[in-house]
């Protein structure tokens, strides 16, 4: 082989990964980087109206600095929305992951029956769009069509309004728990199956009960999966949009600004104030990033400590 | 590679040496607590599905008057009403969803395959940087993207088009991540090297040798993306105004919105919801054996 040929070959290999990554890079630039840059640009500007705001040139985009951010951070509606989502997440994340872990452990138990069927049934809601899930549950919450109210009525029990006040949080949380438990269960269950059989046998020989095995051996060994599912759940919670939006036609208690994302939508497309909407969106993105990275770091140092022990 | 399917993971009750030690009758005993817990969980998950199946059989008047779990008599009427609603726009929504999800997932899988393979097999400058930047995309709230995406699409005169819903979803950072861990596990470096020795081009090595090995992982990426696009609501909600282009999620939502003024539409919404659930559930039942779900947890063993 001449050196020229070898060079050309080496060059071909060198160029290949860049060529393979080209489509992803172009798409990332167009649909991720450019929009993010544009959103940041928008959030730092505002519209200045000259005179009556009529005619071309009367509306001009001018530098606003951090003004939009200051407005967003002091906006009581946004703050209230953030608190609502916080309360919602405080219910959804622990309940959903707790149930997912419980079901995964039960699937992994010895002598359990009907495991394949129940596993499929619990995973099924993952295939149902959030909007449709919210509709189905929404109807189940409606007194006129709900079987729950029918039963309560026959028993002569009081019938709480599930779509108002405190119960509304539970009603919304239930939709998320219903939709997300199965997916997380599968993730946790898969890593339970990855635990070597010797570990189980050793525990059994030591006379550990199933409960002890679960608490002392299985759960500690699936911590990485729990971290992953926790991480995805938090991101999903912060971005809750379609479920409360879907429930709106069924109740007056879900405002147009119930969650921060709904407020962003409202500002951008109903009020037409894209500048403050962009600022709010950037804040939500930053909170998501800070929370996720903070959480990942904490989780990483935990696992490293454990490995060191 | 067979170790990747979750199905193999069906509990090996009674076959482990630990349980075999007891006398025979004990082996047949059912673990009551786990079985009952799982049954309760399954009932909870099936409840709304069972409800929608029954509610779709009720006529408008039966919906509000008879007991919820009692089947009605109006199913065929409901379906033909849905069929007739605005000249069958419902079926247009279903076809749109199939197009968005099918084509979107296909393109997305192709892009993920190329990038995941490149990131797993080659050592090149900037590899980790590219990977980390792509991963950060997972964390981006869709709305921070959706608003400027909408405005940029508007600049390009592309809003309210099929492309406006399709294009932003083609690059899936999560898909790239999955394709990377899968190709790292499934494509041995020696085989790539052997292909080079034989003088095959890099593209040929990828399409002829690596791609077939990556198929099980790519099926998972495809299905994952298919579900993600089929379930998507925010992007079409923002981009589209012409309801002829709506996907099923957005179509049903607008139907429900109108239903709050005219309760007669509720039966349409319910029947529509049932029919919208069927294709994806059927897809799930058919392909569940091909999903390597443990890939989703990142727990790939080579």
From TrEMBL, chain A:
It is found in: Cell membrane. It is a multi-pass membrane protein. It comes from the Bacteria. The keyword Membrane applies. The chain crosses the membrane at residues 20-41, 85-108, 120-142, 168-189, 221-241, 274-296. Residues 82-295 form the ABC transmembrane type-1 domain. The keyword Transmembrane helix applies. Keywords: Cell membrane, Membrane, Transmembrane, Transmembrane helix, Transport. PROSITE patterns: ABC_TM1 (PS50928). Belongs to the binding-protein-dependent transport system permease family. This is Sugar ABC transporter permease. The lineage of its organism: Bacteria, Bacillati, Actinomycetota, Actinomycetes, Kitasatosporales.
Automatic annotation (TrEMBL), chain B:
Gene3D superfamilies: MetI-like. InterPro entries: MetI-like, MetI-like_sf. It comes from the Bacteria. The chain crosses the membrane at residues 30-54, 98-122, 129-151, 171-189, 209-230, 264-287. CDD domains: TM_PBP2 (cd06261). It is found in: Cell membrane. Residues 94-287 form the ABC transmembrane type-1 domain. Residues 7-26 are annotated as: Disordered. It is a multi-pass membrane protein. Residues 7-21 have a biased composition (Low complexity). Its main location: membrane. Belongs to the binding-protein-dependent transport system permease family. The keyword Transmembrane helix applies. Keywords: Cell membrane, Membrane, Transmembrane, Transmembrane helix, Transport. This is Carbohydrate ABC transporter permease.
């Amino acid at each position: 082989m001449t050196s020229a040929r070898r060079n050309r070959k080496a060059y071909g290999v060198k160029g290949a990964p860049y060529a393979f990554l080209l489509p992803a890079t172009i798409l990332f630039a167009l649909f991720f980087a450019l929009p993010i840059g544009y959103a940041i640009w928008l959030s730092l500007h505002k519209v200045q109206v000259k005179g009556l705001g009529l005619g071309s040139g009367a509306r001009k985009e001018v530098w606003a600095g951090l003004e939009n951010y200051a407005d967003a951070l002091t906006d009581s509606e946004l703050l209230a929305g953030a608190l609502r989502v916080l309360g919602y997440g405080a219910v959804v994340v622990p309940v959903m992951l707790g149930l997912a872990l419980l079901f995964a452990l039960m699937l992994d138990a010895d002598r359990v029956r009907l495991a394949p069927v129940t596993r499929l049934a619990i995973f099924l809601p993952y295939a149902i769009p959030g909007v449709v899930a919210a509709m189905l549950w929404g109807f189940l919450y409606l007194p006129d069509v709900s079987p729950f109210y029918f039963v309560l009525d026959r028993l002569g029990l009081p019938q709480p309004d599930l779509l108002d006040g405190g119960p509304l949080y539970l009603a919304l949380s239930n939709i998320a728990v219903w939709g997300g438990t199965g997916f997380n269960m599968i993730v946790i269950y898969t890593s339970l199956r990855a635990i070597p059989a010797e570990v189980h046998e050793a525990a059994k020989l030591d006379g550990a009960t199933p409960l002890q095995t679960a608490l002392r051996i299985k759960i500690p060994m699936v911590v990485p999966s729990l971290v992953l599912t926790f991480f995805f759940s938090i991101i999903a919670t912060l971005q809750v949009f379609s479920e409360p939006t879907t429930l709106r036609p069924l109740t007056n208690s879900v405002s147009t600004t119930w969650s921060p994302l709904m407020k962003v939508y409202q500002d951008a497309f109903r009020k037409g104030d894209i500048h403050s909407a962009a600022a709010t969106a950037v804040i939500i993105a930053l909170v998501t990033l800070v929370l996720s990275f903070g959480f990942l770091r904490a989780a990483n140092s935990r696992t490293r400590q454990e490995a060191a022990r | 590679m067979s170790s990747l399917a979750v199905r193999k993971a069906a509990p090996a009750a009674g076959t482990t040496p630990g349980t075999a030690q007891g006398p025979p009758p004990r082996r047949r005993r059912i673990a009551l607590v786990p079985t009952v817990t799982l049954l309760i969980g399954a009932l909870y998950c099936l409840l709304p599905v069972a409800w929608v199946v029954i509610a779709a059989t009720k006529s408008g008047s039966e919906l509000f008057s008879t007991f919820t779990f009692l089947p009605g008599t109006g199913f065929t009427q409901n379906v033909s009403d849905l069929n007739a609603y605005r000249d069958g726009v419902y079926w247009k929504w279903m076809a749109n969803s199939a197009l968005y999800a099918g084509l979107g997932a296909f393109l997305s899988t192709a892009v993920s395959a190329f990038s995941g393979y490149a990131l797993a097999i080659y050592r090149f400058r900037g590899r980790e940087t590219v990977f980390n930047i792509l991963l950060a995309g997972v964390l981006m709230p869709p709305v921070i993207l959706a608003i400027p995406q909408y405005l940029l699409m508007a600049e390009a005169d592309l809003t309210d088009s099929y492309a406006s819903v399709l294009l932003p979803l083609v690059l899936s950072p999560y898909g790239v991540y999955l394709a990377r861990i899968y190709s790292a596990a499934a494509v041995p470096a020696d085989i790539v090297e052997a292909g080079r020795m034989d003088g095959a081009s890099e593209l040929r090595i990828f399409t002829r040798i690596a791609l077939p090995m990556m198929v099980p992982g790519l099926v998972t990426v495809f299905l994952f993306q298919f579900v993600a696009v089929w379930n998507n609501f925010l992007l079409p909600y923002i981009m589209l105004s012409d309801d002829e282009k709506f996907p099923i999620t957005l179509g049903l939502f607008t139907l429900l919105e109108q239903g709050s003024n005219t309760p007669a539409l509720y039966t349409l919404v319910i029947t529509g919801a049932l029919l919208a659930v069927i294709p994806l559930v059927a897809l799930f039942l058919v392909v569940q054996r091909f999903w390597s779900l443990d890939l989703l947890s990142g727990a790939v063993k080579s």
